[in-house]
User: Which sequence fits this backbone?
């Protein structure tokens, strides 16, 4: 991406027709001051705000975010030690908890996290691109976690695994 001052970001957003903004990363919460300024400015302009976070930072619950999408890192990622499990129980009904799954061991890990933390939000499973067949994941979800959903990274099916446009 290109670094831009807040006013330039807001002008760009305002030039587009949607009233919904998704703040994603990298990791938005790694830039606390800038993230807060952006979220407050977008909300003041009436936007619906979704934030995708890697789940490695505490969520600032006082910010005016309409939907948090929090990842839990599975063992296959090599990053599970960074998970903020205490945030899972704070997720609201409109929020989403997402597991990016590489294999059956990751899926089983996800089921244990769900059982232990009983999230009250939407739970999503996404296959690691190029590593797990989405149909296999869908079968596991159907059999073992029927109240959850499979979420595919549509942009990868449309544009492949390249960054940017």
Assistant:
């Amino acid at each position: 991406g290109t670094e831009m001052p807040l006013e330039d970001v807001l002008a760009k957003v305002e030039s587009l027709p949607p009233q919904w903004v998704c703040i994603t990363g990298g990791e938005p919460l790694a830039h606390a001051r800038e993230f807060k300024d952006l979220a407050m400015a977008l909300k003041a302009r009436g936007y619906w705000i979704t934030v995708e976070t890697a789940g490695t930072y505490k969520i600032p619950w006082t910010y005016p975010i309409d939907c948090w999408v929090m990842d839990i890192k599975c063992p296959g990622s090599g990053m599970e030690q960074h998970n903020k499990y205490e945030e899972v129980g704070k997720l609201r009904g409109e929020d989403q908890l997402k597991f990016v799954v590489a294999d059956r061991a990751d899926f089983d890990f996800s089921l244990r996290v769900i059982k232990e933390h009983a999230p009250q939000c939407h739970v999503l499973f996404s296959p690691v691109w190029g590593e797990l067949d989405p149909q296999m994941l869908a079968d596991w979800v159907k059999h073992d976690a029927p109240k959850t959903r499979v979420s595919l990274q549509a942009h990868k099916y449309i544009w492949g695994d390249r960054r940017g446009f």
In short: The chain has a mean pLDDT of 93. Strands lie at 20-23, 48-53, 67-72, 96-101, 122-127, 149-150.
